[in-house]
Design goal:
By secondary structure, the chain is an alpha/beta fold. The protein has one domain: Glutaredoxin, CATH 3.40.30.10. Helix content is 33%, strand content 29%. The chain has a 6-stranded mixed sheet with strand order 1-2-4-3-5-6.
Amino acid sequence: MSLTHTGGVATVTDATFGEEVLTAELPVLVKFTASWCPPCRMIAPVLAEIAQEEAHRLKVVQLDVDENPSTTNAYGVLSMPTLMLFRAGEPVRSLVGARSKRRLLEELAEAI
């Protein structure tokens, strides 16, 4: 199955979430996003940089909440952007809102 990529960040859907996130060998950072969300656009370049620089130890994907309500509802995502880190199929860290690359990496460091 091929994934679409936006600046190094793959796009997942309700249909591909299980395969791409829950069964991934690496920890996966999921950006729950929406096209109408300005902070989501602000953090996109930060996540693209992290996706490239940390590819050896972290997978970064995004999921459009409007197009994928099942996954969004399953994890109780209410605000955009929500960044959720999954390890071994379980959410281990959830962050809401845009932040700098340095701050995001600090907040994820212990969980990666």
